[in-house]
Every structure is written in C-alpha cells, then in structure tokens.
Design goal:
The complex is a heterodimer. By secondary structure, chain A is mostly helical. In chain A, 84% of the residues lie in helices and 0% in strands. Chain B has a domain at 2-80 and 159-270: Rossmann fold. Chain B is built from nine helices and 13 strands. Chain B is globular, with a radius of gyration of 19 Å. Classes of the chains: A mainly alpha, B alpha/beta. Bound molecules: adenosine-5'-triphosphate and magnesium ion.
C-alpha cells in the first residue's frame, strides 16, 4: 500500500499527530481536563468554518481559534471550581459564532463532513509539513515545561509555594492542547479528537504507575492505533476515522475491563 | 539565628484583617505547635511565611532573610489535600518525586542523586514500601505519611505542617506526632505544626503559638495555655482544666478545642470521628 502517495502522506501525518496527541493526552487525563480537550475540539470547528468562509485553509482557522480559546480557558479557570464554567462559556460563545458562519456559508456539506470526521487519506504533502512544524513546536514546549507542569498538576498548593505559577502553566498547557486538537482534527476530525487524545492516554494511565513510562506508552498506543486504523481503512474501504476510533475504544476497554470484572467478583 | 521572625506583622485577606500587629521570634531547632480556632489564621500565617501572602504591614523574616516564594529551605505540607488523581494508577513514588526540582523547567526525569534523596526521605518516614503502591489505593493516613516524606525533599531547615493530624484516628495521630518529633530531632530542623487540639502534641512540642482574635501568643505550654492568655485570644472567659496530663480549654461548659475539632470533622471526616466518639 506504500506505493501510493496518499498512503505515505497519511502514515506520515498520523505518525506526527499520534506521537503528539498521546503525550499531551497523558497530561490532559492526569490533570482531569478532558472536558477542556473536548470543548476545544468543538471550538475548533467554528474556527475552521470561519476560515473557509474567508477563504483561508481550515487548519489555520482551527489553530487560531483553539489556541485563543485554550488561552482564555486557562486564564479564567485557574481554580478547579471555576474551570468548567469558564470552559462552558467559551464553548457556548464559539458555537454561537459557528452558527453565524454556517448561516453565511452555503456550499458546505462536504467540507463540513471532512472537518467533523476528518479524512487522513486526503492529507497532502504540504499539510504533512505544516503538521510536522506545529507538532515539533508543541512537543518541544511540552518537553520544556513538563516538570513544573507535572508538579503543578499533582500538587497545586505546594507547587505554588515553591514558586511555580499555576496560571502560567495552566495557560501554556491549554495552548499546547489547542494546537494538538487542531492537529488531531486533520486526522480524525473535530468530533473524534477524543479517540486519539484521550483513549490511548486513559488506557496508559491504567497500565503504568510511573509518569515516563506512562507518557511513552500513551504515545505508543496512539501510534499503533493510528497506523492500524489507516491500514484497516485501506483494505476494507471503511473510513479511517472509524477504525482509529474503534481501536482506541477497544484498547481502553481492554485496559479497564479486567480490573472492573475482578472488582465485581465476590471475594 | 532565628528560624522565623515576625515584626509587627498584619495580614489582611480580601479586606479582612486576619492577624493584626503581631511580633514574635522562633529560635532554630524548635518544635512549635500552632493552635487556634477555625479561622484564627493558622493557614494564613503559614502562607505568609512561605511568601504567598504579603503582609499588609510589618516584615517577616525566614532564617534572617525576607520571606519569599520558593525558598528551598522551607518544606510545606498544605492543609487542603489535592484529590488523588482519578482514574490513574500513578504510584506514590512518582507523586512524591514530582516535588524534586519541580519548579525547574525540563523533563521530569531524575538523576541518581535525586532518586536516592527521595528514597531516603521515604525511608525516614517508613514509607518505602508504601510508595510503590498506586496513590489512589492508599488510605488517608498513609497518604499523610507520603506527604510528610515529600516535605523533606530538598533538605529543608524549616517545616511548615498544616494540620497533619486531620482525618487521623487518635492512634495514628500519636504516630504522626512521634514521627515528626523524631525527624525534627534527627535532622535538627525547626517545625511549625498546626493542630486543633493541644493534647496530641503534649510531650512533643517545645513551644505553642496560639492564634486568636487577630493576636498571637508564643511561649512554653504552661505560659500560653492559661486562662488569662486564652481569654484574651478567644475574646471570652476561658478556663483551662488539667486532668491526668491532658488539657481541656473550656468556655463555660464547652470544650473549645474539641468543639472546633468536631466542627471540622463534621463536614470532612464524619465517619472517622463519629466512630471514635461512640466507642
Ligand atoms: N481568600 C480569602 N479571602 C478573604 N478571607 C479569607 C480568605 N482566605 C481565608 N480567609 C479568612 O481568613 C481567616 C483565617 O483563615 P485561615 O484559613 O488562615 O484559618 P485557619 O486558622 O487555618 O482555620 P482552620 O482551622 O479552619 O484551617 C478566616 O476568617 C477566613 O475566613
Ligand atoms: Mg487552616
């Protein structure tokens, strides 16, 4: 299957995005911010439709909108209690804007489907390079801030006392999540970003007890799921997003079910 | 050198004066119990010593230097325990390790020296084995032990422990107090240990810092836990009654410290306390 250009592009794009989303997802799950990831993906849809409306590539609309929303959420939701409210407000406003764009934009159906569900087989070479650039940038920032981010995530009160700015790292991290969301949306679409960002990370959290191995496993699982998903799509002609999501769900179930079943058994 | 000096310090939070014009000095190497009713300002005082709350008046010095955030010589155990991360099987070891160089940029990968230090801190509190287990699966008291271990990382000279006894039954309370006492002696460090009740700390602490009514009293137990001093700090007539080596601080027929304690227990750890009371 590698004799086709579109397959090589698809594998390259999936590799970049999976490594990024697996690593970022680990911290997202650890921080209990999966709702933020979910909201950012939907906000991204608005950005993408807005970009299409003014004749710009949807990816840039996605990037701009998700990063802006991520930073806003980080600023307004420093404390856990306010977090969901801040996210909800940003989400509602973005969806209202999206509705407005839809109102102005007519020839929409195919574009919208691609945005919502992604189509990795349609990714071209220039998009691969863009993904590589943004992905490398996000991973580099994540690597640089990972230690204080971990500290602030696990023990916010203590981290603050040790001079770690909770707000700074909260904002920076959500900006990275936003970039990751925009990247994921290219592969699986905004509706299924969860599959690549949360699924592998949540499974990895179940299987590991140390941070480093957890992040590596999460990225590894995302990679395998993306590769297998595309391969299955190639041979079955079913949508790749379906396969990737199905694999992600299956792996997560594999991670949690044995323990759940054991817990159900009478001692 | 004094471990902590407060010079005419006022602390104000959201327009409310919590402590007004207090001065005291705690010599290095002391084990000090910090007492006072709910809202007396124990947590606020510790946060001020950590440099997280700037005094509205006066100066705080820690080991001779003005109090600043991120002082490596100060270890801290916050009162509000962040919930154990849900849905993860992260080990206690990783939790404790996150504090090592936690403020520095970079990957959370530790060198041999830091790993040895963490192992050492865990051994000091007897939590070496405990730390291998997932954080989500250990009890509140065991968690307390891990948190204590992590205050020792970075070899601090001053420990601020904010209510380490909360949610522990009397037996485990005694264990923690003895553990802290042993650490304090062995490492020769200064410890501020806040609590709602003086009794678990009797025999361990060198001094009491009693807060109330915006004021503070520092001294030996016999100097501070007296009717006149506490009446001033509570703003009402207080009797101090000693029975078989235990001290009861009474307002009329109420045991003030114990009432406070139950009040706290009521919304946080009802099950634990209720059980103990009925036995
Ligand atoms: N952010 C805030 N804004 C305004 N007032 C505050 C704030 N935080 C605390 N306070 C007030 O400051 C006072 C001191 O609070 P603090 O938490 O220091 O008391 P405490 O002695 O630690 O009490 P507890 O025994 O309940 O832990 C209380 O009256 C509290 O209501
Ligand atoms: Mg307090």
């Amino acid at each position: 299957m590698f004799e086709y250009d579109f397959m090589r592009n698809a594998f390259a794009a999936a590799t970049i995005v999976a490594l990024l989303s697996g690593s970022v997802g680990y911290f997202l799950v650890l921080r209990g911010q999966t709702f933020a990831g979910h909201a950012l993906a939907h906000v991204g849809f608005t950005g993408a439709t807005g970009a299409v409306l003014i004749g710009v590539a949807p990816l840039w609309g996605l990037v701009l909108m998700t990063v802006a929303a991520g930073v806003a959420m980080g600023f307004f939701g420093e404390h856990l209690a306010q977090r969901d409210v801040a996210i909800g407000l940003v989400l509602a406003f973005a969806l209202a804007l999206g509705l407005l764009f839809l109102h102005f934009y007519t020839a929409f159906a195919t574009q919208a489907t691609t945005l919502l569900f992604g189509n990795v087989l349609a990714v071209d070479v220039s998009t691969v390079y863009t993904l590589l650039g943004l992905g490398a940038l996000s991973l580099a920032i994540l690597a640089i801030i990972s230690r204080p981010l971990l500290f602030a995530s696990l023990q916010p009160e203590l981290a603050e006392a040790k001079g770690v700015s909770l707000r700074l790292y909260g904002v920076l991290f959500l900006a990275i999540v936003a970039l990751t969301t925009a990247e994921c949306a290219q592969i699986v679409g905004v509706l299924l970003v969860f599959a690549l960002m949360i699924g592998p990370a949540a499974a990895a959290q179940q299987w590991t007890s140390a941070v480093t191995t957890g992040v590596l496993l999460s990225a590894g699982l995302a990679l395998v799921e993306a590769w297998c998903g595309i391969t299955l799509a190639f041979y079955t002609d079913w949508p790749s997003s379906f396969w990737i999501t199905a694999l992600s769900v299956a792996v997560y179930l594999l991670a949690v079910l044995p323990r759940r079943l054991r817990a159900l058994q009478p001692v | 050198m004094n471990a902590i000096e407060l010079d005419d310090v006022s602390l104000t939070l959201g327009g409310r004066r919590v402590l007004g014009g207090i001065s005291f000095a705690i010599a290095a190497g002391r084990f000090v119990g910090v007492l006072g009713a709910n809202g007396a300002g124990k947590t606020t005082l510790m946060r001020a010593i950590l440099g997280l709350v700037a005094p509205s008046h006066g100066a705080i010095r820690v080991r001779g230097q003005p109090a600043t955030r991120g002082n490596p010589a100060v270890g801290y155990m916050p009162q509000v325990l962040s919930a154990a991360p849900q849905g993860t099987r992260l080990s206690g070891w990783d939790f404790v390790a996150s504090v090592a160089n936690g403020h520095r940029l970079g990957l959370p990968i530790l060198g041999r020296e830091k790993r040895a230090e963490i192992g050492c801190a865990l051994d000091l509190v007897g939590a070496g084995k405990l730390a291998r287990r997932p954080l989500a699966e250990i009890s509140g008291g065991e968690r307390q032990r891990l948190l204590l271990a992590q205050t020792l990382i970075g070899r601090p000279q001053l420990l601020l422990l904010d209510e380490p006894l909360i949610s522990l039954d009397p037996h485990h309370q005694q264990e923690v107090v003895e553990l802290v006492k042993a650490l304090q002696r062995e490492l020769g460090i200064t410890v501020l240990f806040s609590a709602h009740e003086i009794n678990p700390l009797l025999g361990a602490i060198d001094q009491v810092l009693y807060l109330g009514n915006g004021q503070a009293a520092l001294g030996a137990i016999d100097e501070v836990i007296t009717a006149p001093v506490l009446s001033r700090l509570y703003g009402s007539a207080i009797d101090v009654i000693r029975v078989r080596g235990r001290i009861f601080v009474m307002s009329g027929s109420h045991d003030v410290e114990h009432e406070e304690h139950r009040h706290e227990a009521g919304h946080e750890h009802a099950a634990h306390e209720g059980h103990v009371d009925h036995v």
